[in-house]
Amino acid sequence: MKKLILSLALVGIATTLAFGQKKVVKSAEKNMKRGALEEAYTEIQSALQDPETGGLSDTYLLKGKIETMMFEGDSSNTMQTLDYGQSAKESFFKTFEMEGMDSTTKVSKDLFKEVVPDMPENFQGQGIYRLKNASFNKAIDRYEDDDMEMAFEFFALAADLDPKDTSIVFNAGYTGNMVGESQRAKKYFTSLLDIEEYNKLNAYYFLIQIASAEDNNPEEAYRLVSQARDIYPDDKGLAEFEIQLLLQLDKMDEAMTSIESALKNDPENTAILLRYGYLKEKSGDIDGALAEYKKTVAVDSDFFEGNYYAGALYLEKARNIITEVNNLSDEEWEEKSPIMVKEADDLYAEALPYFTRASNLKPDNTDIMEILYQIHTRLKNEAKIEEYDKKLSELLGPNWLER
Predict the structure, then answer these.
(1) Residues with Cβ < 8 Å from 145, sequence gap 6 or more?
(2) pLDDT for the residue numbered 23
(3) Residue 145 burial (C-beta neighbours within 10 Å; 0-12, 13-18, 19+)
(4) If 0-12 CB within 10 Å is exposed, 13-18 middle and 19+ buried, where does residue 364 land?
(5) 20 to 30 Å CA-CA from 149: which of 237, 350, 372, 384?
(6) Where do runs of H (alpha helix) occur along 34-165?
(7) How many CA atoms lie within 13 A of 396 on its CB side?
(8) Can you tell me the distance from the alpha carbon of 128 to that of 130, in angstroms, rounded to the nearest whole number?
(9) Within 10 Å of residue 175's Cβ, how many Cβ atoms?
(10) Cα 132 from Cα 144, distance rounded (Å)
(11) How many Å apart are CA 24 and CA 369, to the nearest integer?
């Protein structure tokens, strides 16, 4: 009988303790509702230490709600603010895990209850979507204040909470890439590729840029370009990326095929014409390359690369002739040299307008000024020789020729 009484007493004590902890949870909820968040937070943390209430998903849900309100209430929007949000996220994810990842349970329905504008407070969700909205608002606040590092962190938190919100996920990737968090940005852009109805073109552009520049991985960049072109075969930017990467990977035959296909759809694309010229130049077809470079300038007279490369090929052709002249035998000199020198000078003259335009486009480029000085010297244009000597002396010093 004594043992029975003792057992009943122990049960009573356990029940009292459990009931006491449940009272603590109720008190935490009450304090949360009246805005006493510090008291509520202390109480809910105490409840989590108890084996019974600490093992209930409701307890973690309430903890997340309190942390969300603390997150909302901190207008400093610093890393400390973010800590509240991250802790709330972990509490909510723990809640869902304890519910067996079943979105149909009562607790999960509360966890994922929507936040609907203009609805009374008691009808609003206080779980994941409230935290997401608060984080999004803080991201916008930081973005508008040009604090891109914190804007990224808050966008990232919102994206983690609702990975189906493509606008927020893209903003997380965009701001992450902007502040140098390329690997984290890559995660968000990559997740967008799995959303069937989403227009993924810009996500692909960023992923290609990250793979090519930050990761220095042209093979991965080319894989992404190929994948993107299967979805967006008519996109001109992707065509240019593909050609650039094929050249970088030294896949010349594939690059030539890609260029010729691209030019059928976009015959006046200066970037592609330039690469076509480069391929022809690399294959030894100098005249063919020059023709493509000149086409770029015909399309856009202010296309710097077209002007520069066309001028450079004219110079190369002229210098090759001068080399041949220097290698003539004494018997050939008198007969051939005047004709060949005249041909070389004509090529120097052909190069002149291209380099002049290139110099106008990049007026501080002293390398082009030196080329123009050499051409005018070759053509004996005294006024221009003096003009470029003066410019170069001012920029590089009076002894620039001795460098």
Answers:
(1) none
(2) 81
(3) exposed
(4) exposed
(5) 237
(6) 37-49, 57-73, 79-98, 106-111, 128-144, 148-161
(7) 16
(8) 6
(9) 24
(10) 18
(11) 81
Q: Rg of the chain's alpha carbons, rounded to an integer? A: 35
pLDDT digits (tens, 9 = 90+) for 295-348: 999 999 999 999 999 999 999 999 999 999 999 888 888 888 899 999 999 999
Q: From CA 295, how far away is CA 297, in angstroms rounded?
A: 5
Least confident of 4-18, 86-100, 133-147, 350-364: 4-18
* Residue 351 · residue 372 · CB < 8 Å: no
CA 367 to chain centre: 33
* CA atoms of 87 and 70, how far apart (whole Å): 11
Between the ranges 2-16, 254-268, 306-320, where is the mean pLDDT highest? 306-320
- From CA 58, how far away is CA 104, in angstroms rounded? 15
Return the number of other C-beta atoms located less than 10 Å from residue 327's C-beta: 8
pLDDT reading at 141 higher than 90: yes
pLDDT band, very low/low/confident/very high, at 122 (cuts 50, 70, 90): low
Q: Of 309, 300, 238, which is closest to residue 270 (Cα–Cα)?
A: 300
pLDDT confidence band for 6 (50 / 70 / 90) = very low
**DSSP letters of 337-389?**
HHHHHHHHHHHHHHHHHHHHHHHHHSTT-HHHHHHHHHHHHHHT-HHHHHHHH
CB contact at 8 A, 376 and 392: no
Chain mean position to CA 115: 31
DSSP 8-state secondary structure symbol assigned to residue 105: S
On whether the CB atoms of residues 272 and 259 are closer than 8 A, the answer is: yes
pLDDT band at 47 (very low <50, low <70, confident <90, very high): confident
Contacts of 288 (CB under 8 A, 6+ apart): 277, 280
How far apart, in whole angstroms, are the C-alpha atoms of residue 352 and residue 240? 29
Query: How far is it, in rounded angstroms, from Cα 219 to Cα 203?
Result: 18
50-58: long-range contacts, CB 8 A cutoff, minimum separation 24: 50/17, 50/18, 50/21, 52/18, 52/21, 53/18, 53/21, 53/22, 53/24, 53/25, 56/98, 57/94, 57/95, 57/98, 57/99, 57/107, 58/25, 58/107
Distance CA 201, CA 257 (A): 23
Residue 11's pLDDT band, with cuts at 50, 70 and 90, is very low
Gap between the Cα atoms of 46 and 25, Å rounded: 9
pLDDT score at 21? 56
